[in-house]
């Protein structure tokens, strides 16, 4: 089957007015703020009314195997499954997803609105400017940085050390040249000269804060608790010490309201927030998921990258901020990606290779067993590609079921919601099963214990090696009395180890902790392992070379 391009499919679909989508989940006309005909923000009036309701839908978390160049299609499955539950099983359903970052859209990864006949629309808007949330975040990040630098230049009564500022500037662009810069050069009227750096907007702490805040007061409090840096006397300095939290919260007050859109099949979708899962916690906003839970009977959300990153963080951290924990977990896999785990090349993925599939299955096995350890029902959905043979699909189902898990093959990309009705039925059945949620670590565990439990139980590492820098940072965090916070592991998404080239399901390796960063406003400690970049670069052939717009404003080449 030769499908039209994703963008062509999306542009050929007639959208329903967003007011009609709002009616599907009982949102009143004065509870949404329109951004044209096809998107809206849910107002504080609506959010506050919804919070009073006792209704809580079932929560379905979609995660996946380790990502590969062969593709997995996690967002496509989330959207297709949501459409199937909504339109084939006729159940009140909402999908909650992250907003795409424009950096990857113009870089290597491309957009993040699903694919084929399982997409959210308007896909061009969502992948580009949308409702302006990313721009508001970027402005807030850089305004805060400018205010801090101005404070040092004008006053600095707290003796904030310019060389120990931890805040980074932000831009929603992949730009490797901004990873390390020097500012304030030249005349003394240009400010105090010191080194600085940029992180992509979605990797900034303010993004994490936006996605965790429950209202504007909470947003303001979290911003105030952000650690700016240290004084020359080695004292921590927070944003609230400088008095900037109100201004930054004002810049983000509209961005905090979740965005309502729809799928190609007109299932309501809330798209809001987008922290990276290989650096931050990798889930859409808490306010979006909680709102969805009070508006519908079934909520589908996804966690970024593989189950060892977004999945683990969702279960151990994000779910603690939600009105309920997941009722079921979907692990997405593809035959192609599992063969890649064994062959480490994309050259022969179109050829049937049962031995490679069996070897690569170890990656899926690790992920689904990890998710099952949380005590929540788990099902595997195999995202079918045209090159998959019946023998390969049958073998993969056999391997999954032999390990005691439910498994279904779906083709939402090619067929929309009709491409996985049985899978939707099984997922709904799983949400009614009893669960006994158990976290990997206890809140009272030390930082080292939390890292150890994740490394051993999720990654299957044997040893953990701390750099001297990490040891010093850990001592500093303990001195500040912040060592009781949850940990967010920053790690390559391609491997269970901290080396992206080691595929499959390795065991008994050493995990290298390079540094620790206190994100006091977000309420977690980032533990960086291996080499992690919070500012991506562009590839030799960036996706931007294929993107264009005609004189009528019609965009092409996003996919």
Automatic annotation (TrEMBL):
InterPro entries linked to this entry: Formate_THF_ligase, Formate_THF_ligase_CS, P-loop_NTPase
PROSITE patterns: FTHFS_1
Database matches in Pfam families: FTHFS
Pathway: One-carbon metabolism; tetrahydrofolate interconversion
Molecular-function annotations in GO: ATP binding; formate-tetrahydrofolate ligase activity
EC numbers on record: 6.3.4.3
Catalytic activity: (6S)-5,6,7,8-tetrahydrofolate + formate + ATP = (6R)-10-formyltetrahydrofolate + ADP + phosphate
Keyword vocabulary terms for this entry: ATP-binding, Ligase, Nucleotide-binding, One-carbon metabolism
Hydrolase keyword on record: no
Binding site for ATP: 68-75
GO BP terms, alphabetized: tetrahydrofolate interconversion
Gene3D superfamilies named in the record: Domain 2, N(10)-formyltetrahydrofolate synthetase, Formyltetrahydrofolate synthetase, domain 3, P-loop containing nucleotide triphosphate hydrolases
NCBIfam families reported in the protein's UniProt record: PRK13505.1
Family according to the record: Belongs to the formate--tetrahydrofolate ligase family.
Official protein name in the record: Formate--tetrahydrofolate ligase
Species name: Lactobacillus johnsonii
